[in-house]
Design brief:
By secondary structure, the chain is of the alpha+beta class. The chain is elongated, with a radius of gyration of 42 Å. Helix 1 runs antiparallel to helix 8 and helix 1 packs antiparallel against helix 9. It is built from 9 helices and 22 strands. It folds into 3 domains: 289 residues, no CATH class; 77 residues, no CATH class; 103 residues. A 5-stranded antiparallel beta sheet has the order 1-16-3-12-13, with no helix packed on it. A 4-stranded antiparallel beta sheet has the order 8-9-4-11, with helices on one face. Strands 5, 6, 7 and 10 form a 4-stranded antiparallel beta sheet that branches. Strand 21 and strand 22 form a beta hairpin.
């Protein structure tokens, strides 16, 4: 009769299937409950890993937003690139202009009589060259090119094609571009050697020394000329059409001659709109950082649930430094108190820590004295504590986000947000190891329980069978 007990269980632990058949006890529920208790360390490790992963991801997002903020303040650059001036031309088909930080607001008139041109000459063969790949005959001679006072090596024509000669001239890097140009037709080609100077100006001339019978004499395609123009009524001439030394801080691009008696007006004014856009971009990037921190720096006293950044020292450090930078007085940056803080410039902190631009106030400050506004943001003399608000933000962003591959003063440096992310990565890896080992232990534990309870059921079954046999025998 004991053989009948085999229906309770059999084989290995994975094949055991019972539910108190012999004992009447729900052993499957007992095993599930005990296994669940055994899994508690694993479940805790999984929860810790998920929390660490979420925090790491958010730290990564925060690093990205801080770097974006740094990029926006860096866009202000130095005083040379940021003290922006806008230029306008009354005829951009004739003249365009740009201004650097050393420019002065004002208006100028320009007239263009002649554009600067580069020298260009050409020569055909003494006999028409119908194929640029055909070799010159013996006795074709040599050619030597001189440009702007520099002579190249003499090139032998014998046995070489016109294309070969072009390649050799260009390889000498004289500042001349050689080309084989078909001045004839497809049906009746006539290839000529064309030499063109790479620079404009009357002094930038090309000369050649030709021997033999291969090439004819060179003729002029276009002469080397200086530009001739007037600025505010003064007669000027330059070798280029890009004029950057006529008026300090201004570059004029001469595009075409102007009609006689019709000068082009060029106006230079402070680019308040461009600077305002840069400042607004800084505010937007700053607010992105603050909003991300605010969204995750929370605590619900009812549910006892904290945000990923709640109590996180690295995030709190960043938040504190940003707020200090925003509310600090910038009198060390600019001496005029009317321009010495974000608040007086029209950029104020709101209750949630974000910044808001007072458009009217900022416009007034920029229109009144854009230089002083920029002095607050940009390092004007690189000495003492006068670093400017932009440099303060840049420095604190670097201290938070630099990688080991970056450098701080020539030394490898890891920002504290990067260090926190590295620590979380290590923690996640360690927790995964704990989880993997725990899962193996739980599986083994569950298998042992199934075997033990299977043996228990078999024992109970045997005892019941014996009981039944005795009852049957002795009544």
């Amino acid at each position: 009769m004991a053989d009948g007990i085999g229906s309770v269980g059999g084989g290995n632990a994975a094949g055991i299937n019972f539910s108190g058949v012999a004992s009447g006890i729900d052993t499957e529920a007992i095993i599930a409950a005990l296994t669940k208790l055994e899994r508690r360390p694993v479940d805790l490790a999984i929860a810790k890993k998920e929390k660490a992963q979420k925090t790491s991801n958010l730290i990564g997002q925060l690093i990205s937003k801080v770097k974006s903020l740094r990029e926006q303040v860096a866009a202000l650059g130095s005083i040379q690139s940021s003290k922006a001036f806008a230029t306008s031309s009354s005829d951009t088909t004739k003249i365009t202009a740009s201004a650097s930080s050393s420019a002065v607001a004002g208006a100028h008139t320009l007239e263009v009589t002649q554009l600067a041109t580069s020298h260009s000459i050409r020569a055909g063969g003494t006999a028409t060259i119908t194929d640029a790949t055909a070799a010159f005959a013996t006795g074709a001679g040599t050619i030597q090119v001189t440009y702007d006072g520099t002579s190249g090596s003499a090139i032998t024509l014998d046995g070489k094609s016109l294309n070969d000669v072009v390649v050799e001239i260009n390889s000498q890097d004289l500042g001349v571009t050689a080309s084989a140009v078909n001045v004839g037709t497809t049906a009746a080609p006539d290839y000529q050697l064309v030499l063109t100077g790479n620079k404009t100006g009357a002094s930038k001339t090309i000369s050649t020394t030709v021997t033999g019978t291969g090439l004819a004499a060179f003729t002029t395609v276009s002469a080397a000329k200086n530009s001739i123009f007037k600025v505010d009524g003064l007669d000027l001439s330059r070798e280029s059409n890009t004029i950057n030394d006529a008026i300090t801080g201004l570059t004029f691009n001469l595009l075409a001659p102007t009609a006689g008696g019709s000068p082009v007006s060029v106006t230079v004014s402070a680019d308040t709109l461009g600077v305002k856009k840069k400042l607004t971009a800084i505010v937007d990037a700053y607010n992105d950082v603050i909003r991300l921190i605010n969204q995750n720096n929370t605590y619900d006293s009812t549910s006892k649930v904290a945000g990923a950044f709640f109590g996180e020292s690295s995030v709190n450090s960043l938040l504190g430094q940003l707020r200090n930078a925003v509310v600090s007085n910038g009198s060390s940056f600019v001496s005029d108190e009317a321009y010495s803080s974000l608040g007086v410039l029209g950029i104020r902190m709101q209750d949630d820590g974000t910044l808001k631009v007072d458009e009217s106030k900022l416009n007034t400050k920029l229109s009144t004295d854009m230089t002083k506004v920029l002095d607050f943001f940009i390092d004007t003399d690189t000495s003492g504590s006068d670093k400017g608000f932009a440099a303060v933000i840049r420095d604190l962003a670097d201290k938070a986000t630099l990688l080991n591959s970056d450098t701080d003063g020539g030394k490898p440096y890891e920002g504290y947000l990067r260090a926190k992310q590295t620590s979380l990565t290590d923690q996640i890896e360690d927790l995964q190891k704990v989880i993997d080992r725990g899962e193996e232990n739980v599986d083994a534990f569950a298998k042992q329980l199934k075997l033990k309870y299977a043996a228990f059921e078999q024992s109970i079954g045997k005892l019941k069978a014996q009981q039944q046999a005795l009852l049957a025998k002795f009544g």
